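I am still getting used to backbone structure tokens and would like to learn alongside you. Label the sequence line and the structure token line clearly, so we can match residues to local backbone shapes. Would you write everything just below, so we can both look at the same thing?
***
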Amino acid sequence: MQKLLIALLVLFAGCAADQRGGPVKEIVKLGVIESVAPIEMDASSGAGSTAGGIFGQVGGANTGTGRGAVAGSVLGGVLGGTLGQQAGISTRPGLELWIRLDGDEQSTYVMQPGKPGEFRVGDRVRVVRKKGGMIVEPDHAP
């Protein structure tokens, strides 16, 4: 009985599931890079606006008593969140890729983090679709 229980636990642990409880589906297609362009991608996490909002609320709450403290807290939270968001905006290098998939008449467009020179026009690649997203990786198959 114990061996059966362990076997079932191992079986269930090995089955990946998405957030809806179904199996994770990974679709891999092969293709050729048609176009590569460097882009700047948004890398902000939202932490700046959260921290700014908290500090603004605390600062605003100390501006008065009663209704004045409540109004100060609300206004301080909004102002602090806005300023925190502006301070937290950052970018990271990315690539805009157009890929002609094998057997398809149309190209597929993917934006992903990366650096110039990582892909070149004519490179064979794999387009991996998983959990609603797509990534492009080199195809090193012979």
Notes: The chain is about 35% helix and 35% strand. The CA atoms of residues 3 and 9 lie 10 Å apart. The longest strand covers residues 26-42. The radius of gyration is 24 Å.
